[in-house]
What we know:
It contains six helices and 45 strands. The protein is mainly β. Among the domains are: 58-75 and 102-159, Immunoglobulin-like (Sandwich); 172-255, Cadherins (Immunoglobulin-like, Sandwich), CATH 2.60.40.60; 263-364, Sandwich (Immunoglobulin-like), CATH 2.60.40.60; 377-473, Immunoglobulin-like (Sandwich), CATH 2.60.40; 481-575, Immunoglobulin-like (Sandwich), CATH 2.60.40.60. One of its GO terms (molecular function) is calcium ion binding.
Amino acid sequence: QVTLRAGAELDARRVNQYTLTLRASCPGEPEVEGWLFVRVTTGQVLRCDTPFRSAEGDMVQVLADVAPRRPLYAVLPQPLGGLTVSGCSPGTCSSHNLEPWNPWLRNHNTPLILTRRGLILAPDNGFDPSKDTQVFILEIEVMDRRGHNCSRAVRVEVLPSRHARVTFPEPHRSVTVTEGIGPWEVVTQVHASGENVRYAILAPMAPVLFTINEVTGEIRSTRRLEVAHAHLLIQAYNALHPADLATATVNITMQGTDRWAPRCVPPIFVSQVPETVSPGSILVTLRCTDSTGTDEYLRYTLEGPPASRSHFCMEGPQLKVNTTLDYDLEAMATVGFQFTATIVVMAGGQPPRSARVPVLVTVTPVNEFRPTCPNSATFTVPETAAFGSIVGRVAGTDRDYPPGSLEYSLEGGSGPAQPFSISRHTGELRVVGPLDSQQQKSYRLVVRLTDTHNDLDPAKRHSRLCDVSVHLQAVPDQVPVCIPEVQELWITAGSPGSRQPVTRLACHGSSDGAKLTYTITGGNENGRFRLEGNTVVYLPNNQVEPRTFVLLVEVWGGSGARHRSTVVALVVHVTPWSTPVPPSTTTEHTTLQKEPLVVTRTEAVWHPPAWFVVVLTISGTLLLATLGCMAWSLLCSEQEQGLTSAFCSSHRNQHPGKLFLGKSSWDVVEQSRGKEEQGHPHTSSPGQFDGHAQDARTGRGYLFNSVTGARRWI
């Protein structure tokens, strides 16, 4: 390992290469010799000046009027890269005071500036121009990348300035200029004693009527002068020491300007006021002056439309509110919620001179009132109302303008508990769910009314809760009606696996348009028939014998929990597809429809006494029992004893009131087809009368309607 001797200094300018001869030997072996070449290159070396490295440090003396940020002292004779320069006042140096690589390092308790390049600069604003000597002591440390450093204190003494102070020999000056002086003409010139003197106008800042040459102090006009008087505040200062300054006033008077009109501030007035502003409130105070610079002889009047002059008035230079500004009145909307007027300012003298100040006042709305619920909010809706049907309209009102700016919402929202919705803007109630008067006869809804667009601030709103009652109107249930109720059909079966439409049922339900459902409830042996909507379809198989089917189709109608049904009977004669069909036989026969018979019955209501009702009831009961026995005897003795016996025995076995068909109408059919079917009665399920019977005298089969007593020959 080869190291540099302690205290040795390398200088590439003197010796740039060293040749070292190295010898090494081991016991019993010859000595070996080698060479090591060390090249020295030029680099940056930290060297502090002799005064800086001395025990006393270094001292710098400067004048107090030295320019801001002027270099006062250089720590290094030349800038070096990779150095850290830090500084602090005596007694405050610590590890946290060192800010390596910070380009600007400020010293504690001193306005001096120490840069990373080792320069001490004067303060940004210069030194305080004091008459006493100021002393600043800095402890400065310089460190390179290798850790070499040198540090010592630097004493900076600031001596009092020897230059003369800036002063105005004439701090107050009055100047009179003639009328009609044009722009950029010299009005006057000011002069201040001192060094590096510069001039500036401090007041007035607006309007800019004059300008000053910052070096010579000449004051010139910037436009044609029309004012009577002008007061200028001039400042003179030392350019190198801005704190050294002085001020002076210049009064400029114009001659021959009496013919100019008054001048007012503001020259135009535009404002927005809320409608709740109280009468007597001041909207604006004009600051007007005449050619003499005073407002002593000025008079103020208000001109404009009658509406503006009735709502506003002038009291001296003040524009005030005369009456209330109600935004919600129709008259306010007529004028567009704006008032225009003109304030006329008159000055004395001959001829009279005047100034006109236009005025535009806009009235803004204030949300003052809460919405009001309607007087009556009770509605009635039929329980069969369809989805989306209008129940009614909740007509809330609001005294604030604009009218009709209410929003409606249903508390609790829509759901099974309250199957209604409300339009946000119109307040219309609509049905959005099923209604059933048997489950609930009325609903109590809570509607929230919220006003909008009634205030300049959209967040300021008022609301109110209103009770709304909806009563359900019960609608009588209607049984579906099918025309005809009984059909007899002849079809020829198609090929097996096909589907063959038989007939389409013509049924209609209630007036609310509820959808009807169809179900085959009887006679569908082996599933040979199926329903597709209201169409009966036959599914052929390998049947070889003619067959007759009596189908019972139940038709359901109604909505909600109120379902009503009726039964349609279909007598379908199926001829196998391989069996020849007589030419006279048609595929389908449509029964004739009977004309409906309208019966009008008028009932007279009589309220008899209680004893008469009791007697009449007992007598009627006995009479009905006697007539029933006589009728039973006659029926049993009829020649159609076989039919009646079959009917009676079947009717006793079934449940009371369980009928084969309700209201029916039977059609006339061809008897020839009935003769072909003799001897083939339709078998029904045990214990249930399916309407098939056979005449005991002739042996012909027929269908019997147990309700009307009519028979249908088959």
